[in-house]
Design brief:
The structure is a single chain. Strand 9 and strand 10 form a beta hairpin. The strands form three sheets. The protein has a six-stranded antiparallel sheet with strand order 1-2-3-4-6-5, covered by helices on one side. Among the domains are: 97 residues, Phosphorylase Kinase, domain 1, CATH 3.30.200.20; 213 residues, Transferase(Phosphotransferase), domain 1. It is α+β, with helices and mostly antiparallel strands and 504 residues long. The chain is 43% helix and 12% strand.
Length: 504
């Protein structure tokens, strides 16, 4: 799968690919955005090699060479390279994004309609692109010597028409630098078929700037004639025509072409490079010489209006694609942010629980031997008190059962023990100490007072039986009752002591 099929948007390093702008045999170009601090954003063009070529050392070398050359050329008619990045996907270039369209697409549209671009606009485009080409030819090294740069792919595909009314040259990927002897492998033709010079076809290594002048002459011929100079149907036939046939004059296709323009283009297309126009700058001046051909050159605003008229719909569709990609990016970011927040909350909860468990475990480890036994003693004491009360509640009905009628009667007519508490009753604790004591200790009636009636009243409490003088041994010796009996001062019973209290 080629990178032209990448799912967008996609991030490469700090660059976010949004829309594919075009694709060639070696690489694809994407519109991307780069973000920086303070909310700064900038649109750039990212050039990516196709995956099956990423390991090609010659291609990697050409990309790096393109970056070095374009970075050195500082000219308004050359698209600058801003960055070169190497990562796991390979090497890619970051260039200034020119909002507009390639000259090839505009010219193809005109040919399909059977028309030609306005001559003033053509002159403006040729003048700008030739100015950028001459700047590359004149590039010098740090020592001031010419580097001998040859673009070798000067063609309408590599001339970008911006909506700002400026034409710019791009793509130095197959450029040759005379100072680098290893920049070209023998036997490999660099450049697009229809724009190759005769010397490029015969000997690819034996080229100089005049090969680019030939390519510029072909481009000018096609723009003025409104058709291709070399049809591309048969590659072998095209190469043969380039090296054997002198190109026809423009006036053979367009009789009304100004003679000065026809002559200048013919001089750029001389098969003998020694007889050919020597520099791109001379061709530019000849094409823009209004005094010679009497045709005005379009202003930047006129070129901008022409680009808008030819490509406005396509540019608006591209802008909609960019907005759709940005919307998808925003939606993906919202999903990511929600996921990160949820993960953060979960992580915080897990960490908080882990911290609490760690603290609890540490506290239990540090103070478990003392506080654990102290808590156990308190709970044991409370359980003993509750058990005593429950036991007393079960014994109370037996203690309070009414005496049988066969009990002996004292002379006063009252049963024995009536009117005075028995020994068992005296041994019960006062009311309020526990649930059992509240049930067992029943207040004596008014019959205990002298002169009271011996018959119990309707609300009188039942009289307990006269138990044996001897209390049950298990009640007298119950350790909990003994430890929980009230003191003489009426204080509440003490809980079992903690053996560690003394150690503190």
């Amino acid at each position: 799968m080629q990178r032209a099929d990448l799912d967008l948007p996609r991030t490469l390093g700090r660059y976010e690919l949004l829309v594919r702008l075009g694709s060639g045999g070696m690489a694809a170009v994407y519109l991307a955005r780069v973000r920086a601090s303070g909310g700064f954003e900038r649109e750039v063009a990212v050039k990516l090699t196709h995956p099956h070529l990423c390991d090609d050392p010659e291609l990697v070398a050409s990309l790096l060479r393109e970056a070095r050359i374009a970075a050195r050329i500082r000219h308004p008619n050359v698209v600058p390279v801003l960055d070169v990045v190497e990562d796991t996907t390979g090497v890619f270039l970051v260039m200034e994004y020119v909002e507009g369209e390639a000259l090839s697409a505009v010219a193809r549209r005109e040919r399909a309609a059977g028309a030609r671009a306005p001559l003033p606009v053509v002159l403006r485009v040729l003048g700008d692109s030739l100015a950028g080409l001459h700047a590359a030819h004149e590039l010098r090294g740090d020592d001031g010597a010419l580097l001998g740069v040859v673009h070798r792919d000067f063609s309408p595909q590599n001339v970008l028409l911006g909506i700002d009314g400026i034409a710019r040259l791009t793509d130095f990927g197959v450029a040759k630098v005379a100072a680098l002897s290893s920049s070209t492998r023998s036997g490999f033709i660099k450049g697009k078929l229809g724009y190759l010079s005769p010397e490029q076809v015969r000997s690819p290594r034996d080229v100089d700037r005049r090969a680019d002048v030939w390519a510029a002459g072909v481009m000018a011929w096609e723009l003025l004639a409104g058709q291709l100079l070399y049809p591309r149907e048969d590659e072998a036939a095209t190469l043969l025509r380039i090296v054997t046939e002198e190109p026809p004059r423009v006036r053979s296709i367009w009789p009304d072409v100004p003679p000065a323009l026809d002559d200048a283009i013919a001089e750029a297309l001389r098969m003998d490079r020694d007889a050919r126009m020597p520099t791109a700058d001379e061709l530019r001046r000849r094409l823009l010489d209004r005094a010679a051909h009497g045709v005005p050159v379009a202003e930047a605003s006129e070129l901008a209006a022409y680009v808008e008229r030819c490509t406005g719909d396509k540019l608006r569709e591209r802008r909609r694609s960019i907005e759709a990609a940005l919307s998808r990016r925003a939606a993906d970011l919202r999903v990511v942010v929600r996921g990160e927040r949820s993960a953060a909350v979960d992580a915080a909860g897990v960490e908080r629980t882990r911290t609490e468990l760690t603290a609890t475990t540490a506290e239990g480890t540090a103070g478990g031997s003392r506080h654990g036994r102290r808590a156990l003693a308190w709970w044991s004491g409370l359980a003993a008190i509750a058990a005593t009360g429950v036991g007393a509640a079960f014994l109370a009905p037996t203690l309070l059962r009414p005496a049988p009628s066969s009990l002996p009667v004292e002379p006063s007519g009252m049963p024995t023990g009536a009117g005075r508490p028995s020994a068992a009753t005296e041994s019960l604790p006062p009311a309020g100490d526990s649930i059992g004591s509240a049930i067992a200790h029943v207040p004596s009636s008014s019959a205990s007072e002298p002169g009271a009636s011996s018959a119990p009243g309707p609300m009188a409490a039942p009289r307990p039986p006269a138990p044996s003088r001897r209390s049950p041994p298990h009640r007298a010796s119950h350790p909990v009752r003994a430890s929980s009996s009230p003191s003489a001062s009426g204080a509440r019973p003490a809980l079992p002591s903690d053996p560690l209290d003394d150690a503190r």
